[in-house]
Amino acid sequence: MAEETIEILDSDGINRALTRIAHEILEKNKGSEGLVLIGIRTGGAYLAAELHRKIMAIEGHDVPLGVIDVTMYRDDISSRQNLAVGQTDIRFSITDKKVILVDDVLFTGRTIRAAMEALMDHGRPRNIQLATLVDRGHRELPIRPDFIGRNLPTARNEKIRVDFDANNTPKAVQLHRS
Known about the structure:
CATH topology: Rossmann fold
Low-confidence stretches: none
Number of strands: 8
Helix content: 25-40%
């Protein structure tokens, strides 16, 4: 049987979802004071950069933006082969900050658990809020996003992929069925 690919969101849909998430973040936090954005490498980092631009446009001032690599914090690292270790780039204090952790797709919650553990090595945030473009369910850990672009219930064997263009701008969310 051939693989079926269904486009769930195009670039305009992604843009609308990220704009809504940016407004929701600012509303929940009563503005951008004390906020920092940290994207999980790689898709989450690209989306965090998009949210950063949108929040700057809405608020008129900058919020710190960082990237975190969770490879060495994963609980399944021994079962995965050829995991490339990326670089964490957080050039500001997260202590007592409201951290908006950004990922592209939320599935089991294990990547988010690893990201929270990695964040604690950088300081003690006031709180951690989770923003994700797609929540596909199947949680194995008690993790729930605060900001969601799209809820997309899937079968466990289906895959969700967020595609980015050459400038790391999100261009499509696709569902892949085998």
